[in-house]
Design a protein that fits this description.
The first copy, chain A, is of the alpha/beta class and 256 residues long. Chain A contains ten helices and eight strands. Chain A is globular and about 50 Å long. Chains A and B meet through helix 1, helix 2 and helix 10 of A and helix 1, helix 2 and helix 10 of B.
Chain lengths: 256, 256
């Protein structure tokens, strides 16, 4: 598929990302509902000025620290994540030494396999959570959403859940895990449940996390990383992100 | 397709509307990009508290007045509109005596025909803008987006364009038409280009327009309708809608 965006369109970059997702949809990675979810994120990103805020940078640093310090970190990937940044997720997985698990809200065999294939093409050696691997159950959830890999999300102590549903985010917290979310809506249940929420577009957030992890991964930084996690205040982060969105609405250039 | 939403989900109603659109997608009415656009609207609706504001009510009244007063009004319908409220659009069309025209951003023959079929099943007798009917050109646009029906949008003096692209909204204004938009984002180019913008979910806006039209359609109300249109201030309407969104962000109940 060619991605053909009129270059003079005022929001060409956002349209390009949108077309990446439509391509992922046509390749069987993304559910129709995933396209709608992308749109919801687009609005918040638009109100944030489509750029990474200072608090989002701080969150990304804390998130990478938490993953590097974890005994058993896992990166959860759904169709939208695979369509938008499979290369970057595989890079992050290698750097923080965390396996990738496919974890779908609308689970079906074809989509699982398509996502696994995409991740392997991006260099992933092992992809958890596919087919009969997803045999463990998240206690408080119903339906196919509750299935996870016993060697992955089930036993993980720290999980990165980009673009996640609120019920599942909360269930992971209730299982005692450290939960890192990437969510553009600071009011969402996912954003409010997680211990660390990066309020940023995943397209920008994962590269930030990679850069932070590369910078921090030295053993000598253990105390620094512990401090970054300990001093991180998610409540203040979300309130500040909300203020930016409110301010963004007021400050956007416009003519009526 | 069964629409199966967990009834205890805090946003069950919004999920139901979303599934209506996914169904429209599966029936060939809606483009993948239309699903993303739906998501963008959802975010603004969420910030508006998913209810019709007072200014949106006033806008709907002014909009119905403008359509009733017009010599040649036309209702533009795309895939999302047909999927979400084809019955209501046909009702409105009958009440304000305005034909319906299929007008697509991502035009293709199958989608045109699927939308025409849906509208006819909802009772529309004539559907403009399909196939070779769409032979007139909007001067300032490129690509398939510029094709309109010479007996419909091309010669119309007043057009209702729900969920429309900014370029095309502006082009209609530049052609001298009175443009009525339905758009949940008061900052969008469509919202800012139109003379009357209803900042509301189309699911709620069209029934409001129908109710207003039924109430106003008496000939004796001509002066009242002229006054409603004349006194309508779209700039103030959009600023007030923005204030509601900003206030909604601050006031939403939340626990961190």
């Amino acid at each position: 598929m060619d991605i053909n965006i009129p270059s003079n369109h005022p929001r060409a970059k956002s349209l390009y990302v949108r077309e990446l997702l439509v391509r992922g949809f046509k390749n069987g990675l993304v559910a129709p509902e995933g396209l709608i979810a992308q749109g919801r994120g687009e609005s918040f990103d638009y109100l944030l000025g489509e750029k990474t805020s200072k608090v989002a940078q701080i969150s990304a640093r804390a998130a990478s620290s938490a993953l590097l310090l974890a005994k058993c970190p896992v990166l959860s990937v759904n169709g939208n994540v695979a369509a938008l940044c499979s290369n970057e997720i595989v890079d992050l997985s290698n750097i923080v030494n965390a396996p990738i698990e496919v974890n779908l809200f609308y689970r079906n065999n074809n989509r699982e396999r398509a996502i696994e294939k995409q991740l392997k093409e991006s260099g992933a050696k092992i992809v958890l959570g596919v087919g009969s691997r997803a045999s463990a159950i998240i206690p408080e959830l119903q339906s196919e959403r509750r299935r996870v890999d016993p060697n992955g999300l089930y036993k993980a102590d720290t999980v990165l859940i980009p673009l996640e549903d609120g019920d599942r985010a909360k269930a992971f917290v209730n299982m005692g895990k450290t939960v890192i979310a990437i969510d553009l809506n600071p009011l969402s249940r996912t954003a409010r449940s997680a211990q660390i929420t990066i309020v940023d577009n995943i397209i920008r957030a994962i590269p930030r996390m990679i850069a932070a992890a590369k910078q921090l991964m030295d053993k000598n930084n253990k105390h620094l990383m512990e401090r970054l996690v300990k001093e991180f205040d998610n409540r203040e982060n979300l309130l500040e992100s909300l203020r930016l969105i409110q301010g963004g609405i007021g400050a956007r250039p416009r003519r009526y």
